[in-house]
Amino acid sequence: MTVPLTRTLYRTTAHAAGGRTGSVRTDDGRLDVRLAPPRKKVPGTTNPEQLFAAGFAACFTSALAEVAAEFGADASAARVACEVQLGTTDTPAGYGLAVALTVSLPGWRAADLQPLLHRADAVCPYAQAVRGNVPLTLLAVDGPAADDHA
User: Fold this and answer.
1) Which domains are assigned to the chain?
2) Cα(77)–Cα(61) distance, integer angstroms
3) For 23, which of 16, 61, 110, 141 is 20 to 30 Å away at the CA?
4) What is residue 146's predicted lDDT score, i.e. its pLDDT?
5) Which of 22, 24, 20 is nearest to 12 (CA)?
């Protein structure tokens, strides 16, 4: 079931040319990158999976900060690693993605952080977009001590 927007808060457009061996650029020019297939190591390029991972990690970090604040916690020092896998599937499409988010927060134990991850998953627009289509793993890991800046 799709859920329509009740109000648009932000709008952007990206233009791609040449597929995985081309380029992508946003209307405002703030993002302008050359692309190469994921398994090719072409200097100065990225790929759609890296762009998706970057966007998902940033979005989830913001969602985590929002839900942590509801519980009086500060998650501004959270670290989110987003791994995106591109692979084959046994579906007519033949290809699919899998996502794993690994999250730490200085001074927090994984067991205490895990409930916040599930709440952030419920409000993160990227998590909502992939729900039911892409396997998503949420992994909380023990954060370093609050005074450890390594």
Assistant:
1) 1-46 (2.20.25.10), 48-140 (3.30.300.20)
2) 9
3) 61
4) 52
5) 24
DSSP string, 36-85: --TT---TTEE-HHHHHHHHHHHHHHHHHHHHHHHTT---TT-EEEEEEE
Q: Which two tokens stand for residue 135?
A: 């396997």
Q: Is the pLDDT of residue 149 over 90?
A: no
Rounded-to-integer distance, Cα 85 and Cα 87, Å: 6
Angle between helices 110-123 and 48-70 in degrees, nearest 10: 110
Tokens 């987003």 label which residue? 82
Half-sphere exposure of 65 (CA within 13 A, CB side): 11
Cα distance from N-terminal residue to C-terminal residue, the chain:
44
User: pLDDT by residue (tens digit) across 15-27?
Assistant: 999 999 999 999 9
